[in-house]
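Thread: Newbie trying to understand structure tokens

Hi all, I'm a second-year student working on a class project, and my supervisor (Dr. K.) asked me to get a predicted structure for one chain before our next meeting. I've only ever worked with sequences, so writing a 3D structure as a token string is new to me. If someone could post the tokens and maybe explain what I'm looking at, I'd be very grateful. Here's the chain:
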Amino acid sequence: MSITFIRFVFSLFVLGFLSACGTLGVEPWERDVLAKDEMQLVSDPLEANMDDHIYFSKEASSGGRGFGGGGCGCN
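---
Reply by user tm_fold:
Sure, no problem. This is what the structure looks like when written as tokens:
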């Protein structure tokens, strides 16, 4: 096998992989399914507010739930 043939085959694979991502996305007729209540990240706003209140009361801070440690700064 020649090096040009290997490069040609490799470039075809690369172009194939890049073109496969061209059709990703939400079509207009699919948006009604994604707008349903059960598809939301927070399905129950009252429960989410209660969780936020409990978290705020325990940590003495708001937001940033991705970090460990207490609200006193003693990590």
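A couple of things are worth pointing out once you decode it. The CA atoms of residues 17 and 23 lie 12 Å apart. The mean pLDDT is 75. Feel free to ask follow-ups in this thread.
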